[in-house]
Amino acid sequence: MGHSSVIFDSKAILSLIVILGIISIILVSNFRNKDVRHVFSPSTFVCLVLLYYAVIGPFYTIIAGDTTYRLTDMSPYYSISWTGVAVLLTGYYIAWRANWKPVISSYYPYSDNAIIKSATIVFLIGFAMYATWMGNNIKILLYGYSEQNEFKNEGTFVMYLMQGLGLLILPLCCFFRNKLLTGKRMLWFYLVLILVAWIYLNSGFRFRLVLLIINLATIYYITKSTRPSLLVWSILGVAFILFMGVMEYSRTYEKGLNLQRVEGKGAEELFEGGTNEARIFMASGAVMSQVQNKGDYAYIDPIMNGVLMPLPYTIFPQKRAFLGYMAGRVDSVFGRYGTGVAVMEYAEAFVAFGWIGVFLLGAFMGYLSKRIWNYFAASDGELLPLLTLAAFNGFLYIYISRGYFAQILTACFFYMIIPLFLFHHFAKRYTIKEDISQ
Length: 438
Hints:
This protein is 68% helix and 2% strand. By secondary structure, it is mainly α. The strands form 2 sheets. The chain has a two-stranded antiparallel sheet with strand order 1-2. The protein has a two-stranded antiparallel sheet with strand order 3-4. Helix 2 packs across helix 3 and helix 3 (42-64) runs parallel beside helix 17 (383-401). It starts with a helix and ends with a helix.
């Protein structure tokens, strides 16, 4: 267990004041705003994600007396990690509060039938990609966990088929909104919801469930124009952390959930498992400390790695030079126990360009948040701006918590750009056809 004097040095205390101060200002402002839509602005989700990773998770490990990660004492690294969050939030808040002009964009009213048809097409495309990726292992959707499942689909381009999972959320949001507005197709919505949730559970990637919940919550509360209950969502938040603990112990990637691993575990152990994800806060600080001490910055390597990732090695073998920039730095901290250790995005920004990189990351995130929010706020209840806001709110979770630019870029395309583009293309096309036929 790390000593409090090591964890809570002057930089840590100052950083926590900044973190809690900015988060409090944003959340109080959004929840007290007369326009209930502000509760579901991107700034709210930035605060909630950072509350989980930079406050709840770290403080739980301190209270529990377990400040180790992968057999390494992390207590010396809390301070620099909190400083990273404070710098990130400062950049974000400045950009978020700036008086950016609203996005000027044309809006297109889709017909109800066009919305359902287009959403169904996008869903089928995503499911077909996922089914192709899974191959014979698709049977886990029927039979559940199986140790005999062999998963051999590897390689950059084959892996893109798995990203079809990202195309399933937007259609579900369309079905959900249609249900809320008309009360029709309720059975269809619930069947699709169960299927998508079951797929995400059996795939073993918890972040997709988080994206799904954020998207549906945004659609629900903005469509209903109602303010969420803090008490209800606090209870649901604790329940969700416990459920994440169940997944932490039982998940097996693409093989289903092995619930036998959860047998005999109490609520405290499940809660600890549910907050285990937040330990990447510690790893982030450790990597930042190593880079700061050695002056070993990666500069443009993360950006080049992300941009060049879709190119095959046979066409551009030089891209190998940009790989491994993070793995080597993680290994310098954890040694042979560093396999699979992740960091948060502010840590990757620090690895690339130091403190200025962290500040610019926050500022860019604030700029995007305000642009997306203005695009939605300037609309008059149109569907596409609402879908864009919901998708971006969910995307922020990946943007903040995954310190791997290539993954963030991939998620941006498959969870936002591609599904929104496909939906708009088909919905506009079907609406025009209906207008011509009338």
